[in-house]
Specification:
461 residues, alpha/beta, eight-stranded parallel beta sheet, 13% strand
Length: 461
């Protein structure tokens, strides 16, 4: 959870929209691929008119099957002329474009990285450049589209757990109905995968499943500093140790976790997620692969951060559903009950609210993959001297409210049919600093009490 700086910026950039009630309107059901610009043009109205009629706070965020009221119920759709499709390459060469990787190109043409590297005398498979002309082995082949299959296990049981550094409080976890524990490992090249064997075995011996979230050890990493090949080898070796799930990186849409200027969902999917997925499944097919959860934020300048909705759409377009069993989600900035979608002290942006986050992430992938909430936390400064300035939105949250909201969110997730895993952030962290009040998120408070445990026990006995 490293989004506090973006939360502070977000508060200052959210705009308040004036609500105008439409005199008359017709209903339109959003189709896959629709945008407000397309819908407005189709019905001959303005984007702002649709925004006002539907109380839309973010014009860039609509989802399939959403019902929109179109101002002026007499409007009829303007006939659409299908746009020409981009022709696929038919020759034996391909010109590298921005965001391309050899793995993506190989997958697109149904060949292998090694075959392309050999055909083009490429010594470093991680180094290609825009404008480079590559010979594709078996020239004349058309790109092979990768179509994500529906969730292979739609009836998988819901899993409840919490993030911790160990199992010192396993009794309270069991009392709360938890069957999962999450640990986060800060990886760097040269690390020994065997270092994780102890905690994996400890979890299993105590009848817990374990999610290992593997991210980088360096904050604000330098450009080109992520060794994708070494990371892939590491997660494959960890998979062989027998964890139940592995999360591939963390909050890669902000420069705290990914090199500034290189934040790109296509790069993440093609250079990290896809190779990691294939390597993990080769090592241990039973491991659930979770895509890295994004930092929920509306701040977006491309250089230092991408808004999570834009990045998420980019992941979908890059084929992430083909390389993840579950889509990772974070929700750690709530200051209201998860049953509501208004009233947050910081504003109206969807990321402040639980259900809009759930719907956004699930609908972006069309329901072909379940969600894994790898962090759900409610911050309470009760019992601490002060609250860091960037977390001022949580100043009114009591421990009792934290307990209630954690339990409500878990119940909503379990009943939604859309969530495979719900990890509470966090169980028992003790660190509380001016920049990261981790202990304020802990459901086991510093005095040893756990009101949330009692609430959860009533729901998940």
């Amino acid at each position: 959870m490293k989004k506090s700086s973006w939360l502070a910026v977000l508060i200052s950039v959210i705009l308040t929209l004036t609500v105008v009630t439409a005199v008359s309107a017709l209903a339109y059901k959003v189709q896959w691929g629709d945008t407000l610009n397309k819908i407005a043009a189709r019905f001959g109205v303005s984007v702002q008119a649709i925004v006002s009629a539907n109380n839309i706070s973010n014009p860039n965020l609509i989802y399939a099957d959403q019902i929109l009221q179109i101002p002026d119920g007499n409007a009829t759709p303007v006939p659409q002329t299908p746009s020409p499709t981009t022709p696929v390459p038919t020759g034996g060469t391909y010109t590298v474009k921005t965001g391309d990787t050899l793995s993506a190109i190989a997958r697109r043409f149904g060949t292998t990285i090694a075959a392309i590297a050999q055909a083009n005398n490429i010594s470093n498979v991680n180094l290609i450049y825009v404008g480079q002309v590559l010979t594709i082995p078996g020239g004349g082949s058309s790109p092979a589209p990768v179509t994500p299959q529906p969730n292979p296990n739609p009836n998988q049981t819901f899993g409840l757990g919490a993030q911790s550094n160990n199992l010192a409080n396993k009794a309270k976890m069991s009392q709360s109905g938890m069957t999962w524990v999450k640990i986060q490992y800060k990886w760097q090249p040269g690390d020994a995968p065997g270092d994780l064997n102890g905690i994996i075995q400890d979890a299993h011996q105590n009848n817990f499943k374990i999610l290992v979230s593997i991210t980088g050890a360096t904050s604000y990493p330098a450009a080109n500093s992520i060794d994708f090949s070494a990371y892939t080898n590491f997660v494959a070796a960890v998979a062989a140790l027998g964890p139940d799930a592995i999360e591939i990186w963390n909050e890669m849409n902000i420069d705290f976790e990914w090199p500034a200027g290189q934040i790109n969902p296509s790069t993440y999917v093609n250079s990290m997620l896809a190779p990691a997925y294939n390597a993990i499944k080769a090592a241990n097919p039973g491991v659930m692969v979770v895509s890295g959860a994004l930092a929920p934020t509306g701040f977006d300048n491309t250089q230092n951060a991408w808004a999570d909705d834009r990045y998420l759409s980019g992941m979908r377009a890059a084929g992430a559903a083909s390389y993840a069993d579950c889509i990772g989600v974070h929700h750690n900035a709530g200051a209201t009950s998860p049953t509501v979608s208004s009233g947050h002290p910081a504003g109206t942006h969807y990321s402040w609210y639980f259900q809009p986050m759930l719907n956004l992430y699930y609908n972006t992938f069309g329901g072909v993959r379940p969600l894994c909430f790898t962090e759900v936390g409610y911050l309470s400064s009760e019992g601490f001297d002060s609250l860091p300035a960037n977390f001022g939105w949580a100043s009114g949250t009591s421990v009792a409210e934290q307990a209630q909201w954690v339990a409500e969110a878990a119940q909503l997730a379990a009943n939604s049919g859309k969530v495979r895993l719900f990890i509470i952030y966090n169980l028992d962290f003790q660190n509380y600093t001016d920049t990261d009040p981790q202990a304020g998120y802990a459901i086991i408070r510093r005095d040893g009490s756990c009101p949330a445990c009692d609430r959860l026990h009533a729901l998940f006995p």
